[in-house]
């Protein structure tokens, strides 16, 4: 009941004209970014962070804008999957399997509409899940001391492989790079400067917003330059929408199942949206009557879409309540929260109740906006796909640079941004994932601090790290999180690849 | 940096250009002014600049506008270096400062710079230091904590929101020094990235005591989760904080104001400096400023001109000595 009144209070924040405006802008930009092949939600949010800073938005407005972008990008990812058989990002891959065959059969409009409805159901159910689960998790807040935090961060690093890991070794290397960058600046536990070489600008360390914008946005620009991608994508014709209520009812069970599975996958740290859409699809295929999966079955579009949108909202649960991101995009959102002087984690729900509930309420509003936008306006988004990147990318770069400069008025920050951009380009070329770098930068200092604090409190006794049931439990999950992806990961990935190949042949 | 500067004066305000032109003539109150907040938007310095800037314009001290420029880095060091090296003669520039500024100057954390390189204008209030414990703690007074430390310096562990050697850490050391606790470097201090983070650890029973500012403890004090043992001010603070005893009442002669104020460039003209001092004096007594203080939990603390310059000098020296005692600097 308490939760309900807080949520209502949240709606009073989310329904102000300002909040609705940012939700709409975020939804449109997000859908557009998600629809462009290659630009996923993490890039979208990274590109728009500096914009939020340079406009001087309040923390609540910034978060509403960026969570709408996040949700919008998850919606948008399906557009290119269905029309072009090119997933906008990894989670949208499963949507290709039945979405593209539907488009080939001349049912592109139906596929887009069904996926929009399924996305809505996925996000909606998962947001309800967030409302129920988050306060319960947040109740543990006060039980987290230094040793529990240390175990929690160990868990976050242990599950890194699950988020991005094709190659565990490269993931490890990326995390190490992030940790190394994080050591620059004052060490708060001793007050000593590390690796600053008496350069004043380095005394507070390297700003992770600059790193994020460089790694994600600027490196994307370099990729575009390399591809000489001067032309937009070919214009795709869309048929007139003919969707009966019966068709919608037919995909509802698949959507609901997908939403719940996706949410669970999202909440587990490290599992993320790809797993959400994958298990939703495979389960649907297995449980359904014969059907025509892989040949353009509407349920094959609905299940993975509900799954990946459910997972996107689910991933916000560990991010908001524990300060541990469950996906790449939530890692980027976490960085932004910290930059706004808001510490995510167990106390967020007590100390920034207005903000949290405002954002959760805004997610409901944003989803509704997305549904309303996506059914009638899908044609416009499809047209936007054909804007040549040579016009799009300079705008992206401009927004990023102006944003970075306006935060600190330091030209050095711009050099750093470009430096990170070049580094990001190289890392991506050699398949070193970027998200662990950001996580290393974000969580490394916290982990170091927690370990030191735990040892100070115990007067140097390492046994303190296992001093409570909570920390032992976290260590167990961490160990499972480390081992399971190594065993299960390749199996799942192989299956994903196989079902994709099967779809191609079909 | 020079490019950066000229770009800024062109881009940000044509008004600033007017000011620079105005400097060629005899001094008159600047039409427009610039206030540097040496941190990102949202922090204490940013608040100081924006709120004072607003009152300066509302009360017609400045006819044009007061532009707040955020210049973060090195805990104020980047802005300090900028003021000393690039803006030394600018009459229309003020820079927000606080006890964090003097702490870093004292500990040599702005390499090659010292408090004599700028002119200190005045303060507009302060946030006083507090020592607090969780509601289930066995300690009910600051004296008890200090007695425990005298027995065993690691008996009580403190959590605060500044880095080791920073202001929150120094507050504990000041109180301990005034209570004749020996072996100050052995006192255990846990540095957190912010006061609220430290506070949660104390309320959760993981760390014994909290050291921070009065503005940080209000929420947990009202909810009854936190027992504030002492406020480090000369007199009791106004309600609702008037139930908290001062450290002095408990026989510990420790005062720790985290003041909010300004400095101007070192070679700013004497006339302009006097004008700023007089203006800050007047501004402090306006109703508008009193309302801002009340709304934001700022406590009375007002020193300007020569008195403030002397205060900064003394505070810097005190911090320097204390930092040497604990082995933070040589």
TrEMBL record, chain A:
Alphabetically list the UniProt keywords.
Membrane, Transmembrane, Transmembrane helix
InterPro entries given in the database record: DUF112_TM
Domain of life according to the entry? Bacteria
The transmembrane segments are 20-39, 45-71, 111-137, 149-165, 172-193, 205-225, 260-283, 322-343, 355-385, 391-407, 472-492
Q: Where is the DUF112 domain?
A: 20-439
Any one Pfam family match given in the protein's UniProt record, by short name: TctA
What is the protein's given name? Tripartite tricarboxylate transporter permease
**Classification of source organism:** Bacteria, Pseudomonadati, Pseudomonadota, Gammaproteobacteria, Oceanospirillales
UniProtKB/TrEMBL annotation, chain B:
Q: Which family does it belong to?
A: Belongs to the UPF0065 (bug) family.
Q: Where is the signal peptide?
A: 1-26
User: Which Pfam families does this one have?
Assistant: TctC (PF03401)
Q: Which domain of life is it from?
A: Bacteria
Name of the molecule in the record? Tripartite tricarboxylate transporter substrate binding protein
Q: Which InterPro entries does the protein's record reference?
A: BUG, Bug_dom1
What lineage, starting at the top, does this entry show? Bacteria, Pseudomonadati, Pseudomonadota, Gammaproteobacteria, Oceanospirillales
Q: Which Gene3D superfamilies match?
A: Bordetella uptake gene, domain 1 (3.40.190.150), Periplasmic binding protein-like II (3.40.190.10)
> What does the record list as coiled-coil region(s)?
none
Swiss-Prot/TrEMBL keywords: Signal
């Amino acid at each position: 009941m308490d939760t309900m009144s807080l949520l209502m209070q949240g709606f009073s924040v989310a329904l102000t004209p300002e909040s609705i405006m940012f939700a709409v802008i975020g939804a449109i930009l997000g859908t557009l970014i998600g629809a462009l092949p290659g630009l996923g939600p993490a890039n979208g949010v990274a590109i728009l962070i500096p914009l939020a800073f340079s406009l001087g938005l309040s923390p609540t407005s910034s978060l509403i804008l960026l969570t709408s972008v996040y949700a919008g990008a998850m919606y948008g990812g399906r557009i290119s999957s269905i029309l072009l058989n090119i997933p906008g990002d990894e989670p949208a891959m499963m949507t290709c399997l039945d979405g593209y065959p539907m488009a080939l059969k001349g049912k592109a409009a139906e596929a887009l509409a069904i996926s929009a409805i399924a996305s809505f159901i996925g996000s909606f159910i998962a947001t309800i899940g967030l409302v129920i689960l988050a306060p319960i998790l947040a109740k543990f807040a006060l039980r987290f001391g230094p040793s529990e935090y240390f175990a929690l961060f160990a868990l976050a690093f242990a599950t890194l492989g699950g988020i991005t890991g094709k190659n565990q070794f490269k993931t490890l290397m990326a995390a190490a790079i992030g940790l190394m960058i994080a050591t620059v600046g004052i060490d708060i536990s001793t007050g000593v400067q590390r690796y600053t070489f008496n350069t004043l600008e380095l005394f507070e360390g390297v700003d992770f917003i600059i790193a994020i914008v460089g790694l994600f946005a600027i490196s994307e620009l370099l990729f575009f330059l390399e591809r000489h991608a001067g032309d937009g994508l070919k214009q795709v014709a869309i048929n007139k929408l003919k969707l009966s209520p019966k068709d919608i009812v037919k995909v509802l069970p698949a959507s609901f199942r997908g939403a719940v599975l996706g949410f669970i996958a999202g909440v587990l740290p490290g599992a993320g949206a790809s797993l959400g859409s994958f298990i939703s699809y495979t389960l649907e295929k297995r449980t359904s009557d014969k059907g025509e999966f892989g040949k353009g079955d509407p349920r094959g579009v609905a299940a993975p879409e509900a799954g990946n949108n459910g997972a996107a909202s689910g991933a916000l649960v560990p991010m908001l309540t524990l300060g541990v991101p469950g996906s790449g995009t939530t890692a980027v959102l976490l960085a932004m929260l910290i930059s706004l002087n808001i510490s995510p984690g167990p106390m967020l729900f007590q100390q920034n109740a207005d903000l949290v509930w405002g954002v959760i309420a805004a997610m409901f509003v944003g989803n509704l906006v997305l549904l309303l936008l996506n059914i009638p306006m899908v044609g416009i988004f499809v047209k936007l796909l054909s804007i040549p990147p040579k016009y799009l990318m300079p705008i992206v770069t401009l927004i990023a640079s102006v944003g970075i400069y306006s935060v600190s008025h330091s030209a050095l920050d711009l050099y750093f941004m470009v430096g990170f951009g070049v580094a990001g380009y190289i890392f991506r070329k050699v398949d070193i994932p970027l998200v662990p770098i950001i996580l290393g930068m974000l969580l490394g200092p916290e982990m170091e601090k927690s370990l030191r604090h735990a040892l100070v409190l115990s007067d140097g006794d390492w046994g303190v790290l296992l001093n409570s049931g909570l920390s032992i439990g976290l260590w167990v999950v961490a160990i499972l999180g480390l081992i399971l992806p190594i065993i299960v990961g390749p199996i799942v990935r192989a299956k994903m690849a196989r079902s994709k190949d099967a779809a191609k042949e079909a | 940096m020079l490019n950066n500067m000229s770009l800024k004066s062109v881009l940000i305000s044509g008004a600033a250009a007017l000011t620079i032109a105005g400097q060629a003539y005899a001094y008159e109150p600047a039409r427009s002014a610039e206030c540097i907040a040496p941190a990102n938007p949202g922090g204490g310095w940013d608040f100081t600049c924006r709120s004072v800037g607003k009152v300066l314009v509302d009360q017609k001290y400045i006819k044009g506008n007061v532009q707040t420029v955020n210049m973060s880095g090195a805990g104020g060091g980047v802005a300090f270096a900028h003021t000393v090296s690039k803006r030394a003669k600018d009459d229309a520039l003020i820079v927000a400062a606080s006890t964090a500024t003097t702490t870093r100057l004292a500990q040599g954390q702005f390499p090659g710079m010292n408090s004599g390189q700028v002119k200190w204008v005045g303060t507009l209030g302060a946030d006083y230091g507090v020592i607090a414990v969780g509601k289930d703690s066995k300690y009910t007074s600051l004296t008890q904590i200090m007695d425990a430390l005298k027995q065993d310096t690691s008996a009580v562990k403190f959590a605060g929101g500044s880095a080791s050697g920073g202001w929150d850490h120094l507050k504990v050391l000041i109180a301990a020094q005034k209570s004749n606790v020996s072996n100050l470097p052995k006192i255990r201090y846990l540095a957190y990235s912010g006061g609220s983070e430290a506070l949660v650890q104390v309320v959760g029973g993981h760390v014994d005591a909290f050291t921070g500012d009065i503005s940080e403890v209000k929420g947990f004090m009202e909810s009854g989760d936190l027992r504030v043992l002492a406020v480090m001010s000369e007199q009791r603070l106004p309600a609702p904080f008037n139930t908290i005893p001062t450290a002095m009442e408990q026989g510990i002669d420790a005062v720790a104001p985290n003041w909010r104020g300004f400095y101007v460039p070192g070679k700013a003209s004497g006339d302009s400096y006097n004008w700023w001092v007089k203006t800050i004096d007047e501004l402090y007594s306006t109703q508008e400023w009193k309302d801002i203080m009340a709304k934001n939990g700022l406590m009375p603390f007002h020193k300007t001109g020569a008195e403030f310059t002397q205060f900064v000098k003394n505070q810097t020296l005190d911090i320097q000595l204390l930092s040497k005692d604990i082995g933070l600097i040589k």
